[in-house]
Write a structure and sequence with these properties.
CATH class of the largest domain: Alpha Beta
CATH topology of the largest domain: Aspartate Aminotransferase, domain 2
Strand order of the largest sheet: 4-12-11-10-7-5-6
Largest sheet: 7 strands, mixed
Bound molecules: pyridoxal-5'-phosphate
Number of helices: 16
Number of domains: 2
Strand content: 15-25%
Oligomer: single chain
Number of strands: 18
Amino acid sequence: MHKLAQLDRQFVWHPFTQMRDWLQHEPVVICAGQWAVLRDVRGREYLDANSSIWTNLHGHRHPQIDAAIRRQLRKISHSSALGFANEPASLLAGKLVDAANSKRNRKNPKLEKVFYSDNGSTALEVALKLAYEFTRRTRGKLVGRTSSRAEFPRFLSVNGAYHGDTIGAVSLGHIDLFHKAYGGMLFSTDRVMSPYCYRCPFNRARPERDDARNYRQCRWECVGQVEQKLSAQKKKGNPYAAFVFEPLLQGAAGMIPQPEGWLRRVTDIARGHGALLVADEVMTGFGRTGAQSPKPEPQSPASLFACQQEWVQPDFLCLAKGLTGGYLPMAATLTTQKVFDAFLGGYEEFKTFFHGHSYTGNQLGAAAALASLDILQTQSSVSRRARLQKWLQDELSSLWSLPQVGDIRQVGLVAGIELVKNWRTREPFALRERAGIRVCEAMARRGVLTRPVGNVIVLIPPYCTTKAQLQKMVSALAAGIRETF
Ligand SMILES: *Cc1c(COP(=O)(O)O)cnc(C)c1O
């Protein structure tokens, strides 16, 4: 066994990993990468088919991002945002605000303020705390009345939601497998059903060899339930403080895409009931959900955020994973002037937002993010993404011939392939059968690395992936399925 693998096995505890299984084999030790290719210490090469857990955008060792980090290194790597501003964080905030506001939006408040943190979970914690305190301060009757829990601002999120692993983020999440054990530590939030067309109890259509969104037969019962939930809470005299959602696509729930129009409808309803909108674009942000919007905005660059594809303007926009192009841990929570103003006051009023992290506004991270944004906004990156989206669609269609493929759902540059025992009945594999894990292991033996969520295989290639590399990813998946079953 390689000495680094040995050290890992001796000392490292891996995230979301059953370590007994881990300790049964020699781990792959990654030591280098270039574009969509990862190399391990034994000299083997792999395609990074999940963009290093959904973070990487333009590939590894992109010369422009590498150079930006090197330039920043020659100046300084980090200084504290507690007390000081810095160059790249200021520049980045301005660019994020530009990118986050759709020119067509006139109705809703602009996102104008950027609060930096380190990862997706903290980006959500920040939104959560701000929305909570903003609501307490602006809904007169609640201020000062903290005796009854029923009067606290409440949050609504979506079944299957994943918003991170810190306690606030877990409270918003609804994946029992991850979250149930910690129930005693959490605050309570409410959930609405996820618009999971493939397994929707209201979808009366028999399974077809197509994305379930395309052949569903329903009356938007999922939207009706959102309406009911919001109005019931309003009747209790304490309307929801905020509705929290992953726009267009729920990631860790199993790459569950929303049928066109769901997002627009439910966010209109939530706003109508006085809820703030918290968009978790930790996974979907920065072009992941597609280069073209369904109704393209004239004379405007391709939208970088999923919300913009349905003309939704949230009050909070949470960004992390792809923010630095997948180079460094950094996150941002964007919000409105109105929320910002609720925290202004004399020092002695103590209206300060008492929250921050040691590495808030990190200079190296901000320099990488600036370079990544520059690349994203070039015409060549926009057309590369459009091309990749089309290739992905073409390649995936070949998988319908496999009987264990129940649903193939693509949103832009992400795809989830749901494995089932029988596509005609949608009968699922039991989790303990490890169907997804076994298929991914078979793919790894063919030089393609990705991670499943349950029985869903995820393909989320870096934007630099070539056609030949994409074909290899999909054919390794097909071969992996055939070998496993
Ligand atoms: C990954 C993810 C998070 C959490 O981000 P971390 O950086 O892992 O803390 C939150 N929300 C969504 C939608 C994610 O995909």
